[in-house]
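Following up on my earlier thread - several people asked me to post the actual chain instead of describing it. Fair enough. Here it is, all 151 residues.
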Amino acid sequence: MSVAFRRESDDEHLEPRFELPIPPGPNLVTSRGRALIDERIALLEASLPDAADEEAAKRIQRDLRYWKTRRATAIETAARTDGIVGFGSRVTFRMAGTERTATLVGDDEADPAAGLLSFSAPLPRALMGAEAGETIAFNGREDAIEVIAVG
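Reply from S.P.:
Thanks for posting it. Predicted structure:
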């Protein structure tokens, strides 16, 4: 018998809804990152009663599970103050002739356009442990990055 005659609904052919992926490794957050997680949870909880339909409510609940997991696993970490690039550091560097300033933050707080780089991304990982005046290898070049200042 044809599938068209046997199927009662199209629900069995819908794409499955997977949980949002949790980034691997420790969930380091700045105090600002922790506050952003709390704000996101509050916003989602407030929007749940106003969900347009059951599908919208399921999406909000899925997002809530993600953010509550991120809050539960958050390790609030202060920036280093010893002049060495680490989590939470604000670093000014020159790469490919362009000077940039970035702050190394947690995965959920990252916003590259705003100068907030995830500590687990390749560039911040290369910068970790450096001090002002050092030249760092990156992307196959020994002198790719010059660290100008660490704050």
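The mean pLDDT is 90. That should answer part of your original question.
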